[in-house]
Design brief:
207 residues; mainly alpha; three-stranded parallel beta sheet; two-stranded parallel sheet; 8 helices; 7 strands
Amino acid sequence: MRPHVAELSRLANVYTACHPNAGLPNAFGGLRPGAGGESAGCSASSPARGWFNVVGGCCGTTPAHIARIAAAVSGLPPRPVQPLEARTRLSGLETFVIGPDTGFVMIGERTNVTGSKRFRRLIEAGDHQGAVDVALEQVRGERNLLDVNMDADLLDSQEAMTTFLNLIATEPEVARIPVMVDSFPVVRAGGRAEVRARQGRRQLDQP
């Protein structure tokens, strides 16, 4: 957990929290004798390095675990929140930052059914591997962002977009760069789905 908390603290200009679990389970799925030292140890070392502002417990923690964590961090100063420089920050598996000192930003537009006849033929034919190969070519051509558009007549753009994005998400070489979803019906459908989800949550909250 420590490297992930440290990286989050480095990137985030907001308060961060750490909630370690009670430790590794034994062979029967229960807690090992003395479990909790790992969580207390992680909690004690992390704020000393300025990694987080809030600490608590997660899976398997008991009041005794929380007491050990509280004792470990007692008296340590909170993490200072540092404002980030105003820049555009995008992320695939890797972060891409655009600022005043950034040169040309290269956008891969061959994964666009309205801009590439080859890509459209592959998508319409269901040749998913061929379509992923197009994305790979764009990344290997040193594109910084990948533009994906599935707006075309007689094409189920929502299904095509979902399928393609799921495929490139499993291709590390492609997934490392940010993706632009350049497809209005897909974005609009996503917005409607979010509205329906919120309405469902409100209904569940009603007595």
